[in-house]
Here is the input.
Amino acid sequence: MSKHRLPPTANVARDAGGGRLVLPAAERNKEAIATLVADLMDGATGGTALEIASGSGQHVVEHARRNPGVTWQPTDVDPARLTSIDAYAAEAGLANIRPAALLDATSSGWSGTHAGLDLVLLANLLHLISDDETATLIAEAARALAPGGHLFIYGPFMRGGELTSKGDRRFHADLTGADPAIGYKDDFDITDLIHRHGMELVRLVDMPANNLSFIARRTG
Here is the structure.
């Protein structure tokens, strides 16, 4: 969850009872994201995946179910969402999900306590944070990865500096209207940050609803 002022269109969570929250966007996109992540992990046994801004917990349960050989560490900055994550994990009864941890991934230094990761995963966050916070997050994620580990980023992005749908133009305007520091990031800029911090872009995948997934690998 972002620390910035967000418009109503970016902050939609419904109480599902028992401490659980439902994010409609997470429900819509979890299948496509989980399929791509499971293909990337390819039946891995052992290793740890860190999910940044886990939100409600709807995603991490799906990842853990599809990748039972991987230990999943969900995180967020919002206590209510940490509660929701743990409630979903308890309901699912999956042993490979650790208790949700408080983590502000836009701050410097967190890689020091989350080192040697096989995967760092974040979905629908970069448009809710600033350019500087995005740069810090990607730099820290690169440091947290083990050699050969992957960074997976999903969300809405500009393509070559252009917003490519009416929905994207409307949502970007909502975001910047609420806080000029946030809004859609450009795919070229994200690729540059990936390369700058010792990773290579392995795949750039077009996703449903005009979203993108970046899959990067730490090279050394």
Remarks:
- Helices lie at 24-41, 58-66, 79-92, 131-144, 166-178, 187-196.
- The mean pLDDT is 96.
- DSSP finds six helices and eleven strands in the chain.
